[in-house]
Amino acid sequence: MRELAYYEAKLEGLREILAADERVHFITEIATGFLGLSPHRVHFRQIASSFPDRVIAPPISELAFCGVAIGAAMAGLRPIVDLITASFAFEAWPQIVNEAANAFYMSGGQTRAPVVFHLLHGLRGAGAAQHSHSPQAMLWNCPGLKIVLPSSPRDVKGLLKTAAASDSPTVFIDHVLLFEYRGSVPENDEAIPFGQAEIKRSGADVTVVATSLMVQRSLAVAERLAKDGIQVEVVDPRTIVPLDFDTIMGSVEKTGRVVVVDECHQSCGVAAELVARIAEAGFDKLKAPIRRVVTLDVPIPFSPRLEEFVSPSEARIAEAIRAAAR
Amino acid sequence: MRELAYYEAKLEGLREILAADERVHFITEIATGFLGLSPHRVHFRQIASSFPDRVIAPPISELAFCGVAIGAAMAGLRPIVDLITASFAFEAWPQIVNEAANAFYMSGGQTRAPVVFHLLHGLRGAGAAQHSHSPQAMLWNCPGLKIVLPSSPRDVKGLLKTAAASDSPTVFIDHVLLFEYRGSVPENDEAIPFGQAEIKRSGADVTVVATSLMVQRSLAVAERLAKDGIQVEVVDPRTIVPLDFDTIMGSVEKTGRVVVVDECHQSCGVAAELVARIAEAGFDKLKAPIRRVVTLDVPIPFSPRLEEFVSPSEARIAEAIRAAAR
Amino acid sequence: MDPIDQAHQSREWLIESCRRMLLIRHFEETLIGLQNQGHFAGHYHVYIGQEATGVPALSCLAPDDHIFTTHRNHGHLLARGAEPGRMYAEILGRRDGYNKGKGGTFHIAASHLGFHHTSGIVGGIIPLAAGAAYAAKARKTGQIAVCLIGDGALEEGAAPESFNIASLWKLPVLYLCENNGKYGAGRALGAAQSFSMAAYPLTDLPKVYKIPAQQVDGTDALAVYRVVSEVVGKIRQGQGPQFIETHTVRWPGSESNWPVVPVVTSVDLAWDASAAPEKFRDWYRASDPVLAFIRKIVEAGAATRAQLAEIDAQAVDLIDRAAKFALASPFPEPQEALTDVFA
Amino acid sequence: MDPIDQAHQSREWLIESCRRMLLIRHFEETLIGLQNQGHFAGHYHVYIGQEATGVPALSCLAPDDHIFTTHRNHGHLLARGAEPGRMYAEILGRRDGYNKGKGGTFHIAASHLGFHHTSGIVGGIIPLAAGAAYAAKARKTGQIAVCLIGDGALEEGAAPESFNIASLWKLPVLYLCENNGKYGAGRALGAAQSFSMAAYPLTDLPKVYKIPAQQVDGTDALAVYRVVSEVVGKIRQGQGPQFIETHTVRWPGSESNWPVVPVVTSVDLAWDASAAPEKFRDWYRASDPVLAFIRKIVEAGAATRAQLAEIDAQAVDLIDRAAKFALASPFPEPQEALTDVFA
Ligand SMILES: Cc1ncc(C[n+]2csc(CCOP(=O)(O)OP(=O)(O)O)c2C)c(N)n1
Ligand SMILES: Cc1ncc(C[n+]2csc(CCOP(=O)(O)OP(=O)(O)O)c2C)c(N)n1
Ligand SMILES: [Mg+2]
Ligand SMILES: [Mg+2]
Question: Which CATH superfamily is domain B2-185 in?
Fold first, then answer.
């Protein structure tokens, strides 16, 4: 199978989606959308100019342009709408959590809103307090939204396809620090179903459940720890709504030791929910307390030293795995 | 000590705060603010007319009027700003979570924003999907905000005083279904410090950690279960930021059995965080899995039958406690 | 020329409009009774006093146009022909409600009538309507979108943000802003600054974004019809968004947050309001748009008082049966709460 | 009458303004170099081309007025006399930064100069400024609040919502909207509709809310001073909010997201731009407000070229030392990340 960089797979997915379905419109800032400020953003501009009527730049009005996308979805399109920096999703919060998430339920199953929200989350380096959010935990607290967190070239393409085809509002949460990772991506169109976790690495000693960039970070740590004789299994849920809890518990039952790694702030973060579920279901199987490696509960500082200190770094992941393995 | 209804204690607290400190201004809709649509709201109007220059009605512009309160706090006032229905806080989300929460940290400790956000959360009966939110979990995921969840007449008054005197932005989250509860409230001014959980009922068998209305609901269940010989200890954190985890763990160590009752949706809710912390710290002490009684992960339905079914009802609380006690 | 004579307002249209207005009026009056009897909980908002806006305005639309409305939606749905029984069932949280009891009064949706999503969040639908218009334009379906909002919604940032996009992208959307604050305890006052809106007249706001905007008396059904039908024509021709502000006089029964029915509306009331309690009488005499419409029809000779009384009796009967239907409808099974989360 | 001669623009004011403009210019030019050398990460925005707005505008304020600014804040802080060394230290994430390295380029705050909170969220400060004005009015301190925003911020709903409140409550707030989109790849174009803003001229938006609004050439320091000082006087008299839109021509060095310095600014460049690369030359000749100000001062005889060159050299030196100060400042201790969460 051929190898692609993550950003290439992501671009390829978008191009194929736009080419395949006229109902897909993409609302985004052309200059910095989809790939953010990454140096590869010029490639996105090429896609934009291939579909000039369907890739459109809105004013700086996140609330309204997300609502426009939701309304267009209700009326027959399949819009993808780009918040770019995930922190900007807060501007559109009422539309995402109180209109899109509730539409199908509140209408008693009458009204579908097949919209995809695209967000770039997390500590990207010097984003400081206002540009570094990981809102997936807040969103998971809003039933009605599907939530996708890709971590590999193959996943980003395959999950983007499934998101674009989903009949429910879907939040597609990406991370710019994944863009340079390389991996194999099948030539032929391969959508990845929601709700299928992937065991990204097998190991018998400790289960690491990780999402998004934290999958790659955990894999790197796992390689290193293997040399010290600790065999780490890395489970990537890929979508948290729906969540493939069976695969997670399968691994937990095997190892009895769990570390959850996630980039949300600690309190009420994604890791909190995963820990709560595993603690409940795995009470008899756990050989050690479940550990969380997450962003410390402080606003994100600008200075690189401080940012590194509060982030779920490789050092902190390794430490937690060692502690769990003991 | 005299007995007051919850709403009376709350009103008394507000009146004393306004009388004591000229810097306190209250931005609210006069007709339905502070006490919502409760029949007692007429009493709030009396307070409003006692302080006509400091109780002011804004346009329907939550984003801006919360920002106005935050800015006024930065410039020397101590505003209380009323979102009324907690769901409307989403309209002001960018100001609450990305400006107020970050101001002190981001400025390197230069700028205080002593603002209080007042919210009425939860299932109030027929609020349906868009008016029934409990955003405390989302807010707990935003470091920089203090979060207060009163549950008794004495607490609502005492905590409101502390909130108004706090130098940090504070979210004061109340519940209209508490307003009729009665309880003793000291005559003399008694502020209740943040970060002090209260054991609302002692018991040796099962620890229930509950917040807001769920405290009262758990107390009612505890009374009933006592007749069946199950002694329930009800711990009320009163503030989740700061959290008095010691008192919680003290109870957990005593009982070894825990039920967390909270009105947020399940996933990444307040209960998730409490479970995660207790599971980690209490690994050796727990005799049974921690159970959560929370709002089911669906948008809130309108029909009373359905609403009751998804809510953390007394029936579900009792069932969870019985299971934990086994 | 008396507007009654205008070709586009046929006798059938007049009678049918009158029937729908009376239906709305009795629907709301009966609803207030149902609430007082404890048949449903929660806050709700009635459309009394605005019937002469919604009925003629929505009669200008094509069957497949998209309509977004708010907490004050009952009149809009009935104007489009929604079944009062299923609406009551929804408001009472019953299984036969349009939304299976999951939505309630704030959220009545009837997708087959164009009501996809009704929001209780002030300003919530404003971007959604632009979005539906965007879809119609992209798919070249010829549909338009209608955004039914109150004057208060203009205070939310969602309004100007959406006006900007609708204007820039020339979207086929009609903003119909029902200003019900005139002389009442409401918000915007139309021609002067209110405590909550510095922009006045309200039409100035869309105009800033180059959206043509006009005001019309919302108690005058014929004037509403004339303006809306003209403007809808322009939107269909591709001229982009349009904004209409209608003025109605707030019904005094809604002054408190929990409405009361001072008098059951009848055709006779159009000529003799003495049945209404003193404090409400003026409104029924001078500001009630349904009674005004009844008088106009009779004065123009399009129908007799007796004929209208017959129509009224049928409306009362229909509403009566609708209420019975709803009360007989079972509550949904609890497990039903777990469905419809994802499509 | 030549504005230079006006009593209120003393020679000292001219020289000091020129000095501050040059300081800003060199600060930004040097900053671009620091970024290119990898001394700090992340996105940032420079104030080049807008110096003749910020410097005269902020000279009209009292020392204790409240100022809120955005991602493009460097020039505003320097105009108020902030220390360039502490600013660089902040941008480089060092311990001696104004915010102890916790804020970075988007968030430089200097409370003693009135900069309480600088937001990187477009529109984020607009309500905050109204709030500070509210506090000043309530406390009768005589302070005013200044809200420094770009043209793009008017696209956020926070802008109209805040204008409404500021107008209704007659708050002492000055909105200074720096429209840097003219002829550039920016957003609003001032006199015509841009791809992202249907409202034009932009001053129409505050005017809808009855906020007096005017436009001024933001490359003409004297015109800016005149308008801002007049308007600040009105605000202090209790006349309520005011809005000023300034126009500047976008500096071509910022066309890409990562700015480049085509030529280091010097006094000589004011008369001979040939040192600038072809593609940038026009801007330095026709649109650079600092060079235009230099020419004006010299032509008016308020200072000689040599005197200004001396001032420029001092500015270069000051910036040089500031950069060294910042580079010598240590990074904060990691544990420092855990402080300042709560006051
Ligand atoms: C975002 C939000 N804020 C506040 C409310 C509470 N609320 C419900 S109706 C209403 C007044 C709306 O006024 P208007 O838009 O004129 O509609 P009307 O009720 O007069 O028809 C308010 C403030 C809400 N539903 N949503
Ligand atoms: C809410 C939000 N949306 C988008 C952005 C990304 N962003 C940063 S600067 C900018 C352009 C702002 O334009 P303008 O206000 O004119 O300021 P200028 O940069 O031209 O000075 C955008 C869209 C942001 N920071 N915040
Ligand atoms: Mg109204
Ligand atoms: Mg600009």
Answer: Thiamin diphosphate (ThDP)-binding fold, Pyr/PP domains (3.40.50.970)
DSSP three-state, residue B199: strand
Give a yes or no: residue D204 inside a domain: yes
Query: Which amino acid would we find at residue D273?
Result: A
The domains of chain B are located at 2-185, 198-325
Find the length of chain B: 326
pLDDT for the residue D1: 40
Indicate which residue of B131, B253, B308, B319 is catalytic: B131
Residue C331: list chain B partners with CB under 8 A.
Answer: 303-305
Contact predicate B209/B260, CB 8 Å: yes
Question: What's the gap in Å between the CA of D54 and the closest CA on chain A?
Answer: 24
- The dihedrals phi and psi of B319, each to the nearest 5 degrees, come to -60, -45
- Residue D216 is inside which H or E element, if any? strand D213-217
Q: Are both A2-185 and A198-325 of the same fold?
A: yes
Closest chain D C-alpha to A261 CA, distance in angstroms: 20
- In sequence order, the 6+-apart residues with CB closer than 8 A to the CB of D274 are D281
Geometric angle at alpha carbon A138, from D157 and A163, rounded to 5°: 85
Are the beta carbons of B283 and A286 separated by less than 8 Å? yes
Beta bridge partners of C245: C177, C215
Minimum distance, in Å, between the CA of residue D342 and any CA atom of chain A: 10
Q: Is residue C296 part of a domain?
A: yes
Query: Which residues does chain A have within 8 Å of residue D34's beta carbon, measured at their own beta carbons?
Result: none
Q: Which H helix or E strand runs over B83?
A: strand B80-85
DSSP string, A111-149: -----EEEEE-S--SS-TTTS---THHHHHTSTT-EEE-
pLDDT score of B47 more than 90: yes
The CA distance from B273 to B293, in Å, is 13
**Which residues lie near ion ligand 4 (Cβ < 5 Å)?**
D 150-152, 180, 186
CA angle D104, D108, D113 (to 5 degrees): 160
Is residue C334, in this structure, part of any structural domain at all? no
Total of domains in chain D: 1
| Phi, psi for C159 (deg, rounded to 5) | -70, -60
**Which domain covers residue D239, as residue numbers?**
3-328
Mutate to test the pocket of ligand 1, among B29, B60, B63, B91 (most ligand atoms within 8 A of CB): B60
Cβ of D122 less than 6 Å from ligand 2: yes
Instruction: Tokens for B152, please give them.
Output: 């008794």
Calculate how far, in angstroms, residue C161's C-alpha sits from the geometric centre of ligand 3.
20
- Half-sphere exposure of C131 toward its Cβ, with a 13 Å CA cutoff? 37
Q: In angstroms, what is the span from residue A33 Cα to ligand 4's centroid?
A: 18
Domain containing D281 — which CATH number?
3.40.50.970
Q: What is the pLDDT confidence band of residue D191, given thresholds at 50, 70 and 90?
A: low
Decide if the complex's ipTM is over 0.95: yes
Q: Please indicate whether, in this complex, the C-beta atoms of A126 and D41 are within 8 angstroms of each other.
A: yes
Structure tokens at C41: 């909980």
Instruction: Tell me if residue B239 falls in helix, strand or coil.
Output: strand
Average pLDDT for chain D: 94
Do A106 and C99 lie within an 8 Å CB cutoff?
yes
Question: Which fold does the domain B198-325 belong to in CATH?
Answer: Rossmann fold (3.40.50)
Q: Are A115 and A144 in contact (CB under 8 A)?
A: no
Q: Looking at the domain assignment, is residue C339 inside a domain?
A: no
B25 labelled catalytic = no
A–B CB contacts, 8 A cutoff, strictly below: 149
Reported as type and span, the H/E element at residue A55 is strand A55-56
Q: Do D205 and C208 touch (CB under 8 A)?
A: yes
- The Cα C322–Cα D297 span in angstroms is 83
Omega before D201 within 30 of 0, i.e. cis: yes
Q: What mean pLDDT comes out for the span D139-149?
A: 98
Q: What rounded mean pLDDT belongs to chain B?
A: 97
* pLDDT score, position B313: 98
